[in-house]
Design goal:
Layout lengths: L2 H8 L3 E3 L2 H4 L6 H9 L4 E4 L2 E3 L9 H11 L3 E3 L1 H7 L9 E6 L4 E5 L2 E7 L8 E6 L2 E6 L1 H11 L7 H5 L5 H7 L2 H11 L2 H14 L2
Parallel strand pairs: 5-7
Antiparallel strand pairs: 1-3, 2-3, 4-5, 6-7, 8-9
């Protein structure tokens, strides 16, 4: 099968190798490798590929979609979500997400994609966001804050460590619903998190 015929048969920006047989497409591994060398397709991770000419001028929504496709189930949270909501000032170097699977880190030509494990009963508090290449899941701002504290609790022990987060207090007061934050907090059932959230609220309201 020639490349253009293959591309027309796929008819989307991303494809998984196992899907080819379902579509009745038969190509060899050597053909896939050749197209990679020629730059016709790019590998995001084992078995997942993208047509680079269909994914030009990418924005953060597109990278979030890649993140979702690369490791399911997962949703964007932690530093990526905090930055998205303007709660932290730093530029985030990796796309960070939450998963019920094993913690993983994938690197490819598009960047670094980090996934932190969370137990299944805490995999909630996100919304579905549509994008031009499909969709991805994004943590609500309250859940992003709680996810970050939950997965970094050993580093958040006092008001000094809270201050080092450099939370944008104006944005926090504007977008964080305190009632929802406290309702979500109860579901973590953690004394340490309760104490940390109290310190965070003190810092925000200082």
């Amino acid at each position: 099968m020639k490349y253009q015929e293959f591309k027309n048969s796929i008819n989307k920006a991303f494809f998984r190798k196992f899907e080819l047989s379902l579509l009745g497409i038969k190509i060899s591994d050597s053909q896939v490798n050749l197209w990679q060398k020629r730059g016709y397709i790019k590998r995001l991770k084992s078995g997942l590929y993208v047509f680079p000419d269909l994914t030009k001028n990418l924005d953060i929504s597109d990278f979030n979609t890649m993140s979702f496709l690369m490791y399911e189930p997962s949703y964007i949270s932690l530093e990526s979500a905090l930055r998205h909501y303007g709660l932290i000032p730093e530029v985030v170097q990796s796309i960070t997400g939450i998963t019920t699977k094993t913690t993983r880190n994938f690197k490819n030509v598009y960047g670094n994609f980090l996934y932190r494990h969370i137990k299944p009963d805490l995999f909630w508090g996100y919304t579905v966001v549509k994008s031009k290449f499909g969709k991805y899941l994004l943590a609500e701002p309250e859940k992003a804050v709680l996810d970050y504290i939950y997965l970094n609790k050993s580093d958040l022990k006092d008001i000094g460590s809270i201050e080092e987060l450099r939370i944008n207090t104006d944005e926090f007061k504007k977008i964080i619903k305190i009632k929802k934050l406290k309702e979500y907090l109860k579901l973590f059932n953690s004394k340490h998190m309760n104490e940390t959230i109290n310190l965070l609220l003190q810092n925000v309201n200082a």
